[in-house]
Amino acid sequence: MNSADGCDLFLRACRREPVPRTPVWFMRQAGRYMQEYRELRARHSLLELCRTPELAAAITLQPLKKLGVDAAIIFADLLLPAQAMGMKLEFAEGEGPVLSPPIRAAEDVRKLGAVQDGELSYVAEAIRIVCRELNGSLPVIGFCGAPFTVASYMIEGSGSRNFVHTKRMMYQSPELWQALMQKLVPVLGAYLRSQAEAGAGAVQIFDSWVGCLNPEDYRTYVLPYSRELIRAVAPAGVPIIHFGTGTATLLELMREAGGDVIGVDWRIALGEAWRRVGYDVAVQGNLDPVVLFGPREMIRARVEQILRSVAGRPGHIFNLGHGILPETPVENVQAVVEIVRQFRPETP
Amino acid sequence: MNSADGCDLFLRACRREPVPRTPVWFMRQAGRYMQEYRELRARHSLLELCRTPELAAAITLQPLKKLGVDAAIIFADLLLPAQAMGMKLEFAEGEGPVLSPPIRAAEDVRKLGAVQDGELSYVAEAIRIVCRELNGSLPVIGFCGAPFTVASYMIEGSGSRNFVHTKRMMYQSPELWQALMQKLVPVLGAYLRSQAEAGAGAVQIFDSWVGCLNPEDYRTYVLPYSRELIRAVAPAGVPIIHFGTGTATLLELMREAGGDVIGVDWRIALGEAWRRVGYDVAVQGNLDPVVLFGPREMIRARVEQILRSVAGRPGHIFNLGHGILPETPVENVQAVVEIVRQFRPETP
Prior knowledge:
The structure is a homodimer of 348-residue chains. Chain A is an alpha/beta fold and 348 residues long. Helices cover 49% and strands 12% of the residues of chain A. The first copy, chain A, has helices spanning 3-14, 35-43, 46-51, 53-67, 80-84, 106-111, 121-134, 147-156, 164-172, 174-197, 215-233, 251-257, 270-277, 296-309, 330-342, and strands at residues 72-73, 88-92, 96-100, 140-145, 202-207, 240-244, 261-263, 282-287, 316-320. The two termini of chain A are 25 Å apart. The model of chain A has no long low-confidence stretch (mean pLDDT 95).
């Protein structure tokens, strides 16, 4: 299995074309679980890594040979667009990102700027470097946070369990929510298009926190803006992966919002998820990231179970149901790739 | 609508008997959103409040007249049984409960004691006081955490986003997980039975964190123990409410584990949840607690929508999809009760 073949595999699966085997990559495949990443991270802040194209490119490349995955995903942070719009972005040790001051009032939304020329272009530049290095041997995936997920961070100021401020804005000040989304969507759209223009062969939209919503709220407050973003990116001509977690009751609506591939978390059987979103889109997923902390024979059983559940239908990209966790044993990530590469559905 | 009628309403709905209107109560209806609670809390630690029957009883009674709900729920903490088994339980300011040392190895499980006589009996005693005060005018609900949720706290030591330690124990040391569950289930069973004997007219089992699991893990590692607990409590002869959050893909399995009433969170339409668990159980839920931060007309619309979606079928108890949040405006909680009390399904 050479890497040129790998390139082909991922993009063909996104388009639901037949492939000799299922392609595989991992959300957060470049990250803290890897020694090479931790060494670079020890010398640079997270923002330095993100904002220095050569460093972001180096991190993007780190896991590729080591894991044998079928795609690279550019190293960046979901909240860079919020910073580019004028918010202060910091990473508190062990606490995750903090955006300040949080967006709560009309005045806060009004102050959010358009992105200045040059801001965010370091991501496109990193993609250019990665593409040059890979020279067509593997596709590069660009990404951004979905409008809801980025907005919820801007409003909460940090991670949240209950999303009270976010939902309160939706419910109490729908016009303010709309104003925020209408500032955000064009920024995210231009950002993803710039990544595609720089050479990204596909893009993924992460709606990581959308699972706090019920279907009605999703339809009213989220779907129109996710759809607007996806439509704005479609002309770039690259496959769009639309991903969320905790979306068992939202999958049909995410499908309605758009995307060529729907990313699914581990809480739902992948076969059922695909049936529900419809076979006219591809699906990506959906091993629980914590299974990578389990014994090898269990990892094998779970990976093969997922592959078997959707075997025979083109359009599955293997991935976890969310990002690789920091303490994950690297050799177990490698093992997953091997299992996916070797898998052949039983002939009946 | 007098309170004796209220008593009848809740228990009859648990048994799916016809009722003149839908009964309503709230998870965490006694708590920080109430001025009366905050005043008591300012003078006592949370553990003092839980472990002093007169104080726990007083807090239990606080919201009843103020809200006009149809049931009382005893004031207690999910983790008291873990403390009774020998773990150190502390409440870090703004951080939630901390159990130490966390249970990670066979030795840790072995050290967990049976509950000493007298430990936990303060909860039954508080129920006795509440029953005496209410004198049959309202039913009292007892509760405990489900085996998974209590065990996950014991293993993680605190709240968790990814439940890595918990799942790692399940996957790597299933015999250790089993040993922990086998110590826990009899403790929880005796605890709930003692609450029923003290006068609780119903009991609720909170599987608050079970939504991190996929259906397969639930079936293997959780269902047998939840079922064992429910079977152990059934002879007490009171309705059992089986509740969890993030359970959109687990509802059928929760039903299989047991319970007379299945508690449902807001992420799924209640009518669909009921169809899936089957009409031979009652359902409880399922307004998003954050809707109580919204404008009054929206609260009304959402409450009535839930009521309308299951109207005409006996066996619905109105509640939120999770506990009342600390900053919730009391008057909005009162408004929900009013809306439920006044609701009459449109005649066609």
